[in-house]
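Lab notes, practical 5.
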Amino acid sequence: MSALDRLLTSYRDAAVTEREKGTYFERLAVAYLRNDPVQVTQFSQVWHFTDWAKEHGFDGRDTGIDLVAKLMDEDGYAAIQCKFYSAKHVIQKKDIDSFLSASSKPPFVRRVFIDTTEVNWSVNAEDTIRDQHIPVVRVGLE
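Output from the prediction step:
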């Protein structure tokens, strides 16, 4: 078992609620985006959505965006969704609909979907993200 697998298992074991489990994973995603050698060249700043919304005059209601990152070399932001599912969970269209809707307008010019699944998405989910005007990048465990 890798160090990442052990960490995710500890999150699953420690979390009392699904929301708490998701919060742990979002914090891990923030650390990843702020420290990974590839990601730090892409983003100058990363916020939890509610903090970013308050700071930038947006409504902070949970609409499907978990994190927001300021793009390093271009105007705009990346909307980021984090899903802490089991390794065998097949992501369905319904799992991504609210994220795609909430991130479909300015100031978002990129989308990142970070998840813990190890299987392909459903055909409908894959078809939905293909050729979006604002591209969707998937970051999985690998």
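Observations recorded by the TA: The longest strand covers residues 108-115. The helical segments are 3-14, 18-35, 49-56, 93-102, 123-129.
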